């Protein structure tokens, strides 16, 4: 009897607990739904940004560079990304992000962006903001990442979210403006890839004869300003340059500084590797806007086969021919005004057709260092502290015997103390350099 009583009070107790739990759940859900949403809407706004959105990386970049994130997470999310021009897209100049981009820091070194996984908090305009990184595990590397970044602004208006996004965008712009993007084609792939972001190179950091520098900068400047003239006169809005001369004389460096000076990007193509007539046409057509197209070591294409009807090919065996190259250069529309710069150590190997006045408007020789360049370089390198050593140096190094790259090497080796560049050091340097240059200098 007592046992039965115990059992029924036990059942009653269980039912009671169950009933109370049930009522609590119903009350919780009803109240939460009814009032929680209201409270939530009053207290915070959320913006969700998918990793496929361009804004995602801009935010990550800004957060990791400028915000001190409070978090107890011991896990960080690493971001790097590469911008790739969309292959075979009907939309011109579309840029997509696939995989990692390595950003560069002040020193020009690569830096990878990291922000903590989970939720972190920071303060923006005196408002608390939380940022939650939700990452979904991908089953394979081919599957696009579907991470999201959730931005939650507490006790602030929607405007605050707008402000944060705008600030991140401005930050991104300022970073991009400090750098020059270097695009390259991948062999056998019809895509432009951002190969690196280089800190803008100052024109003054390239030591050239003043006349050479002024002529080139002046010409590009006139070209950029003459869009209307080209339109009204019906002349194709293109400008072609050939920079030729021995290795290490500053051709590539000058292109980089030119791009920085005119706030342009650089697209480098190597005609000798994995390019066919069709892909060349496609890639020139897809050159990202506001960029300088560069055919580096253009002679290499013409030494590959010795046959101008077959100057290269892709992996499928599709040919690149001189006609195909000329056709692409002559027929593609140039809304932006195409600037093409070709470089070579062997001008004599380039067919005249490619150098015709409609294709190459200016040929500029980059020669071995003359005394003007040596002086400029020495003064800049040693910050005018050792100018008294210059006369002896110039007496030893004759005009046009060593390259600026070789000189740069010498100065780097003695960067702390140029007084250690003794006569015997100089003699050895000059004879080594001359030996190398006479072997390589088979250009006109
Ligand atoms: N005129 C110059 N002014 C400043 N730096 C130079 C100059 N020439 C060469 N250098 C330095 O030497 C190195 C190689 O130079 P760069 O690649 O510009 O030469 P290049 O003429 O393009 O050579 P190549 O014909 O082999 O492609 C770079 O580190 C660059 O900074």
- Radius of gyration from the CA trace? 31 Å
Just name the CATH architecture of the largest domain.
Answer: 3-Layer(aba) Sandwich
Whole-number count of domains? 4
Q: End-to-end distance, in Å?
A: 119 Å
Protein topology:
Layout: H1 2-43, E1 44-50, H2 54-66, E2 76-79, E3 81-85, E4 95-101, E5 103-104, E6 110-111, E7 113-116, E8 118-124, E9 127-134, E10 148-154, H3 158-178, E11 179-185, E12 192-199, H4 210-225, H5 227-233, E13 238-244, H6 251-261, E14 265-269, H7 277-285, E15 291-295, H8 299-304, E16 312-313, E17 319-320, H9 322-331, E18 338-344, E19 362-365, H10 371-381, H11 390-396, H12 404-413, H13 423-440
Parallel strand pairs: 11-14, 13-18, 13-19, 14-15, 15-18
Antiparallel strand pairs: 1-10, 2-7, 3-4, 5-6, 8-9, 9-10, 11-12, 16-17
The site of adenosine-5'-triphosphate has 16 residues, from α6 and α12.
Walkthrough of the structure:
By secondary structure, the protein is of the alpha/beta class. The chain has four domains: 2-44; 46-177, no CATH class; 180-365, P-loop containing nucleotide triphosphate hydrolases (Rossmann fold), CATH 3.40.50.300; 371-438, no CATH class. 41% of the residues lie in helices and 23% in strands. It contains 13 helices and 19 strands. The strands form six sheets. Strands 12-11-14-15-18-13-19 form a seven-stranded mixed sheet. Helix 2 (54-66) packs across helix 3 and helix 7 packs parallel to helix 9 (322-331). The longest helix is centred in the N-terminal third of the chain and has 42 residues, at 2-43. The structure holds adenosine-5'-triphosphate. Residues 206-208, 247-253, 343, 345, 366, 404-405, 408 line the site of adenosine-5'-triphosphate. Adenosine-5'-triphosphate binds at residues 206-208, 247-253, 343, 345, 366, 404-405, 408.
């Amino acid at each position: 009897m007592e046992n039965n009583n115990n059992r029924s009070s036990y059942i009653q107790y269980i039912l009671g607990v169950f009933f109370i739990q049930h009522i609590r759940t119903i009350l919780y859900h009803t109240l939460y739904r009814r009032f929680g949403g209201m409270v939530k809407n009053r207290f915070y706004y959320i913006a969700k940004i998918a990793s496929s959105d361009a804004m995602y990386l801009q935010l990550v970049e800004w957060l990791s560079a400028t915000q001190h994130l409070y978090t107890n997470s011991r896990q960080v999310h690493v971001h790097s990304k590469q911008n790739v021009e969309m292959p075979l897209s009907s939309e011109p100049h579309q840029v997509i992000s696939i995989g990692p981009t390595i950003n560069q820091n002040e020193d020009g070194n690569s830096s990878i962006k990291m922000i903590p996984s989970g939720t972190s908090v920071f303060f923006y305009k005196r408002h608390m903001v939380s940022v939650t990184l939700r990452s979904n595990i991908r089953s394979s590397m081919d599957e696009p990442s579907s991470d999201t970044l959730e931005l939650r602004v507490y006790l602030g208006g929607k405007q605050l979210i707008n402000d944060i996004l705008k600030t991140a965008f401005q930050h991104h712009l300022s970073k991009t403006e400090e750098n020059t993007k270097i695009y390259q084609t991948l062999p056998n792939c019809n895509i432009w890839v951002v190969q690196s972001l280089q800190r803008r190179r100052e024109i003054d950091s390239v030591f050239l004869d003043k006349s050479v520098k002024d002529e080139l900068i002046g010409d590009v400047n006139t070209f950029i300003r003459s869009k209307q003239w080209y339109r009204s006169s019906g002349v194709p809005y293109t400008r072609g340059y050939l920079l030729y001369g021995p290795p290490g004389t500053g051709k590539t460096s000058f292109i980089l500084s030119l791009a920085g000076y005119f706030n342009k990007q650089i697209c480098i193509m190597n005609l000798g590797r994995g390019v066919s007539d069709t892909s060349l046409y496609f890639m020139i057509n897809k050159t990202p806007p506001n960029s300088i197209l560069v055919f580096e070591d253009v002679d290499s294409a013409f030494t590959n086969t010795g046959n101008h009807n077959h100057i290269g090919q892709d992996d499928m065996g599709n040919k690149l021919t001189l006609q195909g190259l000329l056709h692409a250069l002559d027929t593609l529309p140039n809304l932006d005004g195409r600037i093409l710069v070709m470089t070579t150590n062997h001008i004599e190997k380039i067919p005249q057709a490619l150098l015709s006045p409609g294709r190459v408007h200016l040929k500029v020789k980059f020669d071995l260092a003359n005394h003007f360049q040596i002086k400029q370089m020495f003064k800049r390198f040693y910050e005018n502290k050792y100018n008294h050593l210059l006369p002896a140096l110039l007496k030893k190094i004759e005009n046009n015997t060593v390259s600026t790259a070789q000189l740069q090497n010498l100065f780097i080796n003695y960067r702390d103390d140029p007084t250690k560049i003794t006569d015997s050091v100089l003699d050895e340097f000059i004879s080594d350099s001359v030996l190398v240059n006479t072997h390589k200098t088979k250009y006109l």
